[in-house]
Design a protein that fits this description.
This is Ribonuclease 3. The chain is of the alpha+beta class. The chain has 32 helices and 23 strands. The protein starts with a strand and ends with a helix.
């Protein structure tokens, strides 16, 4: 498909060099008007200093035992009572939510706003001041280049690369009322964004994000750039949309300063498809004109009387045009909201009985929003406690053969209690907000623009991350052939929670301005459950793939599993060669000190891996101890990725570089080639000794069986020499040291095979050990096996009684005697009837019991019969004999 820009000769003219266009004086005036009416309007409405006091860090009071011990551990102080008498992290979140609800410029108590560096319930980052100097989580991208400032009044097309952004699948992006701009008797439909980059984008792994329980793929397609735009127009639109309307105050499009330019610029695409098969893109000057024209008051004061006097048809037509549009009230928090309905009916009150008061009444904007999880039933401690009890009891009932009526009623009562808590007004997740339309301005933008715009921060972080990885590849001296492996190695499992963005900012902006009723996918897309016996059985029952298969698990735990084996192998092979006289125990001690987590974290720090890690901010990962553990895992994952992409030689070089960082002399010692003593004696090979030793002659038969011929067959002989043989000049020792080396070789071979052919298995499933399963059964199952058999917990009382009676059948054959149940009595009306049932065996009544149904009464009678002592009918006696036999 070919593209062209809509004509705009009055606003653009060719640059002197003939490449691109530049603004005319007419367009310059329009840009100034846009800035004054749309951007400066919001700046003037906001005070320079926020009226809300800054976040107050919690100061923990020392507990009594801590005062006695004179201890002041920061990690333990979190468990103590804070200065307001509240305990725990959740209490501090509730305090912060209440603090923000009291903001003097709050648009509505049920609508939430964005503050720089904050979530709804407190600060986004709790890292130390030193940790905030680096890391992508703090907006610091290692090796990021700066670019000279673009000429604002020109398109700078000779410096920029153009890409069209597409989203797949289109669910929740194609809406019934999209943003349409009418121009020159044609309608231009919003179709996404164009991206201008200061550098040519390489072919990178696809950028993915989960929204509305759906995994979206964000793609960029290189195309010829539109003609009619200028950088100043793009900057004005970005500031208006991202900062003034959506309040994405933490958005960073690429490190722009007063002297340098942002890495990326974005342009809205309003297009119309031509009959000839092409596509016409609306010039940016017309987009600014449309936004200026649509920026008037939603309900001007002088039209109030006209609004109330409109007939129903005319009013509904006006409402239909506004419904789904984003309107803004500059200075409020939040300042923008999606209009779901307009209600001009005044409330029933004494003031509204006056006709003049009705004429001055502003219609109300009705908005359907969503409360934050902390304020809904999902974040309520009482609800969470009731939910846990309900789930446990439901699981217990599900594992019963035939639960009683009382047990089922108890489960129903717990479920009814949960439903009652969900329906409470204060705990509902969905909320309806009604706001006076006084002071609101229209924008002309519908929620489809917001849906696309909220994906741009994720794409920008993805591109900046991969650009930063270029510096890492230069540092380690290797360029990955499969970039996805490198991305996976640095992706912590927590990154999937928010994909590097502030989760509350995205949630607030989408709730306030995004699509009203999004189509949701399967909630299980968020679940990455690895624990539990059911999950273990499900995963371990799957066979491996015949060929190497890429895994759908996109974090670094699987690579960490493989990298652990790679690091152990590299450490073992070097130690084996460096210390030819050291026994197996000494080698194992040295290796353990190299591969321990604390040391691997230091190796990661040596090559500055913490600058490239992708993970979500949280109360855990902001702690130094947990962060170091994540760094060690990341280093192992990098070793695994290098092994898969480049092989052992490159992996060994990078591992040595990290191990002996800043110590070139030790690095030379580590990398020095050393031969085994048997190889040093006979550098050209020792197969000439085969004819002299019968033992070596037998080993040639083994070589034939495995299809490998050893150059130094005495090494093979040493591998078969037990330490009980003693020292011989033929092998110069036993096989203990070779056993130490072979253990890591086998671990690497098996780990590599498991990683490549078992794509559904997590790290724990790949490393599961049958010895652990045996130990689990020995500790938990086998000691209770006798009790399990004797009690027959898998059977209901009627089945137990019948089996007991069948054991007493005669040896003569014929039909066996079984217990019979008879209704003895029936009392009460139909809805509360009580039955009495007796159980008989061989003409003798064993027991009688009552129940609200015949089946329940039979169960109770059978249970009573089993518990009663009636000769040989005791089931426990019979199964005791069977067990001991």
């Amino acid at each position: 498909m070919w593209y062209r820009s809509s004509p705009a000769e009055l606003y653009y003219k060719p640059t002197p060099d003939g490449i691109g266009v530049m603004q005319t004086s007419k367009l310059e005036k329009r840009c100034n008007t846009f800035f004054k009416e749309l951007i400066e309007r919001g700046r003037k409405a906001r005070p320079e200093v926020d009226e809300l006091p800054p976040l107050r860090p919690s100061r923990g009071k020392a507990c009594k035992h801590r005062l006695d011990d004179k201890s002041s551990s920061s990690s333990d102080s979190d468990e103590c009572m804070d200065e307001d008498g509240l305990q725990g992290y959740s209490d501090r979140i509730m305090m912060e939510l209440q603090r923000k609800q009291s903001h003097p410029r709050r648009l509505h108590p049920e609508m939430w706003f964005n503050n720089t560096g904050e979530m709804n319930g407190g600060p986004l980052c709790r890292c130390s001041a030193r940790a905030r100097r680096y890391g992508m989580r703090h907006g610091v991208y290692a090796g990021e280049e700066t670019y000279p400032k673009c000429i604002p009044t020109e398109s700078n097309i000779d410096k920029l690369y153009h890409y069209r952004i597409t989203v797949s699948p289109p669910t929740n992006f194609l809406i019934k009322a999209p943003t349409i701009i009418a121009h020159d008797e044609h309608e231009f439909l919003f179709s996404g964004f164009s991206m201008f980059s200061h550098y040519k984008l390489a072919k990178l792994p696809t950028c993915k994000v989960i929204r509305f329980n759906i995994e979206y793929t964000i793609l960029y397609v290189e195309e010829p750039a539109p003609q009619n735009f200028s950088i100043q127009e793009l900057d004005l639109f970005e500031e208006y949309l991202f900062y003034e309307l959506l309040e994405l105050v933490d958005l960073d499009l690429g490190k722009a300063t007063e002297t340098t330019c942002s890495q990326f610029h974005f342009m809205p695409r309003f297009v119309r498809y031509l009959p000839e098969g092409g596509c016409e893109v609306l010039s940016m000057c017309e987009v600014l004109k449309y936004l200026i024209d649509e920026s008037g008051l939603l309900i001007p004061p002088d039209t109030l009387e006209e609004v109330h006097s409109m007939d129903h048809y005319k009013w509904q037509k006006f409402v239909d045009r506004i419904k789904g549009m984003i309107v803004t009230y500059p200075g409020k928090k939040p300042c923008s909201v999606r209009v779901d309905q307009l209600d001009r009916s005044p409330p029933v009150s004494k003031e509204m009985k006056d006709p003049n008061a009705v004429k001055k009444y502003y219609p109300e904007i009705v908005h359907f929003g969503i409360r934050p999880p902390q304020l809904s039933y999902a974040g309520n401690p009482e609800y969470q406690k009731a939910w846990r009890y309900y789930v446990k009891y439901r699981h217990l009932i599900a594992n019963m053969a035939k639960p009683s009526y009382k047990e089922r009623q108890k489960l129903a009562a717990k479920e009814a209690k949960l439903q009652e808590m969900r329906t409470q007004t204060k705990m509902k997740r969905d909320v309806t907000v009604a706001i006076s339309s006084e002071g609101f301005h229209t924008t002309g933008l519908m929620c489809d623009v917001v849906q696309h715009a909220m994906l741009i921060p994720v794409l920008v972080r993805h591109l900046r991350f991969h650009k930063s990885l270029d510096s890492l590849e230069k540092k380690i001296g290797y360029v990955f052939k499969k970039r996805l492996l490198l991305q996976t190695a640095f992706t912590h499992p927590s990154y999937r929670e928010n994909f590097g963005t502030n989760p509350d900012h995205a949630r607030n902006s989408l709730t306030n301005c995004g699509i009203r009723q999004p189509e949701y996918g399967d909630r299980r897309i968020h679940y990455t459950r690895k624990k539990g016996i059911v999950t273990l059985i499900n995963i371990m029952s799957r066979f491996g793939k015949r060929s190497e298969t890429e895994s759908e698990i996109k974090h670094n735990e699987r690579l960490e599993f493989l990298g652990d084996a790679v690091v152990e192998f590299l450490s073992s092979i070097h130690l084996f060669r460096m210390f030819p006289g050291l026994a197996e125990g000494g080698l194992a001690t040295y290796r353990a000190s190299i591969v321990q987590n604390q040391h691997l974290a230091q190796l990661a720090k040596n090559i500055e891996l913490e600058q490239y890690m992708l993970y979500a901010h949280g109360s855990d990962l902001c702690r130094e101890l947990v962060m170091r553990h994540a760094m060690a895992n990341c280093f192992e994952a990098l070793m695994g990725a290098l092994f898969l992409d480049a092989g052992l030689e490159v992996t060994d070089r990078v591992f040595a570089m990290a191990l002996w960082h800043g110590a070139p002399a030790l690095l030379d010692v580590w990398n020095k080639e050393r031969l085994h003593p048997l190889q040093e004696q006979e550098p050209l090979g020792d197969r000439k000794y085969i004819k002299d030793f019968e033992f070596l002659q037998k080993l040639t038969e083994f070589e034939d069986s495995i299809g490998v011929q050893f150059k130094h067959i005495r090494l093979l002989a040493r591998a078969f020499t037990d330490r009980s043989v003693g020292f011989t000049h033929l092998t110069l020792g036993s096989n203990q040291r070779l056993e130490f080396l072979g253990d890591t070789v086998l671990q690497l071979v098996v780990s590599d095979r498991l990683y490549r052919h078992f794509p559904d298995h997590h790290e724990g499933h790949l490393s599961v050990n049958l010895d652990y399963c045996q130990a689990f059964c020995n500790a938990c199952l086998f000691p209770r096996l006798q009790e399990f058999i004797l009690n027959q917990d898998w059977n209901d009382p009627k089945s137990k009684l019948q089996q007991c009676c069948l054991t007493l059948r005669s040896m003569e054959g014929g039909e066996p005697d079984i217990p019979l149940y008879k209704v003895i009595e029936c009392l009460g009306p139909t809805n509360t009837r009580v039955y009495s049932v007796g159980v008989y065996f061989r003409g003798t009544r064993l027991a009688a019991a009552r129940g609200h149904s015949i089946q329940e009464a039979e169960m109770n009678a059978a249970e009573l019969a089993l518990n009663s002592a009636h000769g040989n009918l005791t089931l426990v006696t019979f199964y005791t004999l069977i067990y001991h036999t």
